[in-house]
Please model this.
Amino acid sequence: MFLKSQLSWNISIPPEELHLDELKLKKSIYVRLLAEFAEKKATEELGYFIAVTTVDKVGDGIVRHSGEVVFPVDFSCITFKVFTGEVLRGVVHKIYKHGIFLRCGPLENVFISNEKMPGYCYVPGENPIFMRDTSKIEKDAEVRFVVIEQTFQEDTKEFRAVGGLEGDFLGPM
Model:
């Protein structure tokens, strides 16, 4: 789910990037904010950082002993976080005997076990698939699934999710 968040971060500007011209200084602050936003990638509370939408306020700078100036910046952004019970769509990128892996937006690791795909049977081969009556799940297919569980890996700043196809209107699209 996409969320709109209000955040306040302290942005440090090194002495060589300080400018007397207000526009150049704001540009340095915005560029540094966007770089830190991209570098941070995700947090467990907010999910993946997608985009800064507005910069609401840049406060007065505070000079540090190192010569850097720290500016408090209030801004709005869009994040993407997965919630248990949420129905999402993903694209199949790996198929194994024991299940499939999907990508869903910035979420690279969604696993759906074959046990959570009622009625589907694994068909091995050069391009393995899962079949059920008249529907099939193959590589690059778009699949609607429900999130059963999600976890956040602090070291890689990535979420992992387990999904299922148990429910109405779930499966290949």
Q: What stands out?
A: The mean pLDDT is 94. The first strand starts at residue 2 and ends at 13. The helical segments are 22-40.
